[in-house]
Amino acid sequence: MNISGSQADVYADFNGLAQLKAKATGGQGEKQEALEQVARQFETVFLKMMLKSMRDTVPDSELIDGEKTKFYESMYDDQISLDLSKRGHLGLAEMIVQQMGGQVKSENTVAAQGLSDYREASVRRIQGALQEVKTAEPSSNVTAINSPEDFLHKMWPQAQQAAQELGVDAKVLLAQSALETGWGKHIMRNKIGQSSHNLFGIKASHGWEGKTVSVQTVEYENGIAEKRQATFRAYDSYQESFNDYVQFLQQNPRYQQALTQVDSNEGFVKGLQKAGYATDPAYAQKILSILNRAQLSGLTVPASGFAS
């Protein structure tokens, strides 16, 4: 079965759904294509359910398992499900096509086999496909962050440098980046799993000439949260992200008022929100809440940063 990436993504696209309906009422070739696409989407839904069940077995953490974290986990699971299904190694979609009377040309499907015959083989295929996704990201692009303390340890030197240029408290930058990335656990990635290193959620404007990553995000309009696809800046390192954040604020006139309030952590973050840095009406309050947590409020380190 040969299904393109754009076709496999239409399960969340109403226009794509309308196209599928049209194909389903067309000629034999179009009906076959529609059947294959629907089968692949069903396989994706099945994988999402499986990943959700796996996550439900992991105990929640009051520290990082907030609503925003769960939302990013959901987006990540959506992308993983799509990627696994696109690889075409699981066999479920092909079996559905076969059961519905369609024609299947795949080594994953064997004539006269039913759903029960695929259970054991599917588990092995899913495990293998998950391993492929895991190893798809180049090791040189990976900076594992295992805990909030680990996040602070890795980001503190860059935060100090950026804070000095802006004249703000370095802890404020750590709190903002912790909010934007879920303490480094949910940094945006591109389609092949490479990290964007984007710590501050800066979008790629028309004048941006660097790398980008397109992901689903939450935007607030009239106080109502909505999921939207947006394009964000991507960097080669966390240091580049901090550097760009400094330039972004200093070169953008809308944030000049916030930069006049750097002597006050509350004044600075509220100034960012007032200038439209984020659409979340509670953005500043969330940063201040993180800033008051034990990890940051009690943070005292030497001028040289954390000890290695």
Keywords:
single chain; mainly alpha; two-stranded antiparallel ribbon; 13 helices; 54% helix; disordered N terminus; disordered C terminus; hydrolase activity, acting on glycosyl bonds; Flagellar_prot_FlgJ_N
Order of strands, widest sheet: 1-2
Largest sheet: 2 strands, antiparallel
N-to-C terminal Cα separation, in Å? 51 Å
Task: Indicate the low-confidence ranges by residue numbers.
Answer: 1-14, 106-112, 132-141, 301-308
Tally of helical segments: 13
% residues in beta strands: 5-15%
Order of helices and strands: HHHHHHHHEEHHHHH
Overview of this protein structure:
The chain is mostly helical. The protein has two domains: 132 residues, no CATH class; 158 residues, Lysozyme. The protein contains 13 helices and two strands, in the order ααααααααββααααα. The chain has a two-stranded antiparallel ribbon with strand order 1-2. A hairpin with a 2-residue loop joins strand 1 and strand 2. Helix 2 packs across helix 3 and helix 3 crosses helix 4. The longest helix is centred in the first third of the chain and has 29 residues. It is elongated, with a radius of gyration of 23 Å. The termini are far apart.
